[in-house]
Specification:
InterPro entries: Glyco_hydro_beta-prop_sf. This protein has 4 helices and 42 strands. The protein is mainly β and 733 residues long. Strands 1-21-20-19 form a 4-stranded antiparallel sheet, with no helix packed on it.
């Protein structure tokens, strides 16, 4: 949505005010550190206050926000504007009082002579948003006076150079503005420098530094972010600040605080910015001081999602982050649980505790990644204990899977340490290998080859597998070992599937896949293995014909068969095809365009034993050797569908990482890697993740396994309630 049509996004401008107000107001010192970090959040429903913030003054909690119940509709011109309101409560959980206005919408607007605030906030359709109340306590004049900032985009259409306004208030519940009168009522348009020209949903730092707080402001267009220190009255910028904070674009609704334990400054923001979106990412950046330099984690890899490592929540509990408040030493992220409508009276609110830890890992180190900010829990009760994730390092097996046959664990994957480089022509292909262990935690044996990379390739006469897997630069990937046990012939024979893109792109085949019969779970496989089961076979496929992406095989049979899940070329939609009795061909029974997904791959699917629901996971979006992609999911009542993925609702700019992906993502950054496929071991489903280095030479990458837990949900986009993905978010521990 173009910035020329000002959107409230999630929060808008927020600046603090006061023009030259002096006074003595009783203040309450804030605790330096919380007694214990909370482990759950707080949900507030039924209160018509939105895109605002929460504060605590004395022993009372104050909830500020924009009101909608009078009938306000964004982008409708004219529309009634309901004003900014405040509720009070003895705790964050309430009970909250009925909201009262901070000032009358019909009060005279001194910056729009002859008009009221109703004119600027309702007359042009662009609204007024993001009320931010601050107290000059511990910074600036330190006189305890309350200052309100808010965002009024229409001011820019009326000749102002930015969209922000400040008001002096006679108390934390108002009244505010010139109409409030003595002792502190005033209205002031801030003089700004680094933030001049800004019109996006901003924030004010929740902490001060060197006796000042700062305004964090999104700029129009690409929505880069600026930060400007405020004067002693908190109503003007000082000209001390910075622009292009952390090189962020398409971000707004910022908040920032200083972590008590480390002294690090932490900033959060909506990633990406959008209007009334029902599930956007929450990103973060850090700095050694309030004015920077600010940095945000970045990714590596071909076609990498640039924002995934900096996103600590893929969908912000189904809403959109607003700003940060620090209460008794504990920082809290406010989230608007938007309904996606132009009137947001019914939207709920969510408060999530923020917990920061320094990150010692670097992009491309091939190790497990945990975001500096802990992901939101999005629950009001502690999570139940389950199996712990498993990380495997130092084993040269990648883009494969884990299986358990008998009492032994088998780890399959592509070997890369002989010098393979993706995209290089020619290169050296190292082959598919397997390691064994008595448990998922190892110790893992040295990998051995499933078949010789120099074995003759019957589908490329006169050449070895080295030719098709190395000669064209496109490699061979995604070894999947299955056993005909409990389905099909049910004879216990092992079958290897893998992806060799050059068969389709260079050698005339209609798809990229190959199968081999194996003489055991560690091979040898293929025609060169000989009796009793060594064979090589190009599958006959139907729904999956034409596919060339990293595929998956279902881990649970249905109606006596398993299925291939295959990414198609181009937009990379997903198809699924049941396999035949022998598991080496497609049966022609299947579906295409699963869940209307696009730009995804590396699929896996299993049947949840408790509910009978089929669950599919995938890399969201697809990319090569990426160091932090999303993991998405979809569900179905049967393996043949219909498959559906959770959708968002709202107004947003379409892009590869648009908020349309938010609710369907289990994890925004997949523990710093890229999801691969799913295995079921002793009834427990596990997601395998490749911890890529981001290099086209991926040797040295680690592996990570996350247990999958499915819980059905009746909630949907636009219901204004907290959203928790039905597949539990990764722990990444």
């Amino acid at each position: 949505m173009p910035r020329a049509v000002r959107r409230p996004g999630v929060l808008l401008a927020v600046l603090f005010l006061i023009s030259a107000l002096f006074g003595t107001v009783q203040t309450t010192a804030r605790a330096d550190t919380p007694a214990a970090p909370p482990t759950t959040g707080v949900t507030v429903t039924g209160i018509d206050l939105h895109d605002g913030q929460i504060q605590k003054y004395g022993s009372t909690y104050y909830l500020y926000g924009t009101m909608y119940a009078c009938g306000y509709h964004w982008l409708q011109s004219p529309t009634p504007w309901c004003g900014f309101g405040v509720s009070t409560a003895p705790s964050m959980s309430g009970p909250w009082s009925t909201p009262v206005p901070l000032f009358s919408p019909n009060a005279a607007d001194p910056y729009n002579p002859g008009k009221t605030y109703q004119a600027v906030c309702g007359g042009y359709g662009s609204g007024c948003f993001s009320p931010r109340m601050v107290q000059r306590s511990g910074w600036g004049a330190n006189d305890g006076v309350f200052v309100l900032w808010f965002n009024a985009p229409s001011y820019m259409g009326l000749g102002a150079s930015h969209a922000y306004m400040t008001m002096g208030c006679n108390g934390p519940a108002g009244p505010c503005g010139a109409s409030a009168g003595a002792p502190y009522g005033s209205t002031h348009r801030p003089a700004l420098h680094q933030c001049d020209g800004a019109n996006g949903d901003p924030g004010l730092t929740a902490d001060s530094e060197n006796g000042a707080i700062a305004l964090i402001c999104p700029m129009p267009g690409t929505t880069s972010v600026g930060i400007e220190q405020l004067d002693k009255w908190g109503t003007n910028g000082t000209g001390t600040g910075t622009t292009k904070v952390a090189d962020l674009t398409h971000a707004e609704a910022m908040g920032a605080y200083r972590d008590r334990a480390t002294g690090t400054w932490v900033m959060t923001y909506t990633d990406k910015n959008c209007g009334y979106c029902a599930g956007t990412g929450a990103g973060y950046a850090t700095a050694p001081s309030m004015l920077g330099p600010w940095t945000a984690p970045t990714n590596r890899g071909a076609g990498a999602s640039l924002n995934a490592r900096r996103v600590f929540s893929a969908n912000s509990c189904g809403g959109q982050v607003d700003t940060v408040s620090v209460i008794d030493g504990q920082p809290w992220e406010k989230i608007d649980l938007w309904t996606g409508d132009m009137n947001e009276e019914k939207a709920g609110l969510r408060f999530e505790p923020l917990s920061f830890r320094p990150v010692g890992d670097t992009v491309g180190d091939g190790k497990l990644w945990q975001t500096g900010l802990a992901p939101f829990t999005c629950t009001d009760t502690p999570a139940a204990a389950g199996p712990s994730p498993v990380t495997v390092a130092g084993v040269d097996l990648h883009d494969g899977q884990i299986q358990k046959f008998g009492s032994t664990y088998y780890l399959y994957g592509t070997m890369d340490d002989c010098g393979f480089q993706w995209g290089k022509t020619p290169t050296t292909w190292c082959g598919f290998g397997v390691s064994t262990a008595p448990s998922m935690n190892g110790p893992w044996s040295s990998p051995t080859l499933l078949f010789s990379r120099d074995a003759a390739d019957p589908y490329n006469p006169g050449n070895t597998y080295q030719a098709v897997c190395a000669g064209y630069g496109s490699g061979c990937f995604s070894p999947r070992m299955i056993q005909r046990s409990g389905w099909g012939a049910n004879d216990g024979v092992f079958i290897l599937w893998f992806n060799a893109p050059a068969y389709k792109s260079n050698l005339g085949a209609s798809h990229a896949y190959m199968t081999m019969g194996c003489n055991g779970p560690t091979g040898p496989c293929g025609a060169s293995a000989g009796a009793p089961y060594g064979t090589t076979h190009r599958p006959t496929l139907h729904q999956c014909d034409g596919a060339n992406g990293d595929a998956g095989l279902t881990t649970t049979p249905e109606n006596g068969a398993i299925a291939l899940i295959c990414p198609m070329p181009g937009t990379t939609s997903i198809a699924l095809e049941q396999l035949t009795y022998w598991g080496a061909d497609g049966s022609g029974t299947g579906v295409t365009n699963l869940a209307k997904l696009s730009n995804v791959e590396s699929t896996g699917a299993y049947k949840d034993p408790a509910t009978g629901t089929w669950v599919m996971t995938y890399a969201d979006v697809n990319c090569g050797f990426c160091t932090g992609t999303g993991t998405g999911y979809a569900t179905a009542p049967s393996v043949l569908g219909p498959w559906t993925a959770p959708e968002n609702k709202g107004v947003w700019e379409q892009a590869a990482d648009s908020p349309a992906h938010g609710r369907r993502q289990i994890s925004a950054g997949s523990c710093g890697g890229k999801p691969d496929t799913v295995s079921v071991i002793d009834g427990q489903a596990w997601q395998k993740i490749n911890l890529w280095t981001g290099s086209a030479a991926p040797a040295g990458s680690g592996l990570h396994f996350e247990p999958l837990h499915y819980t059905p949900s009746t909630r949907k986009a636009g219901d204004g309630q907290v959203w928790v993905p039905e597949v539990a978010p990764f722990a990444c521990s």
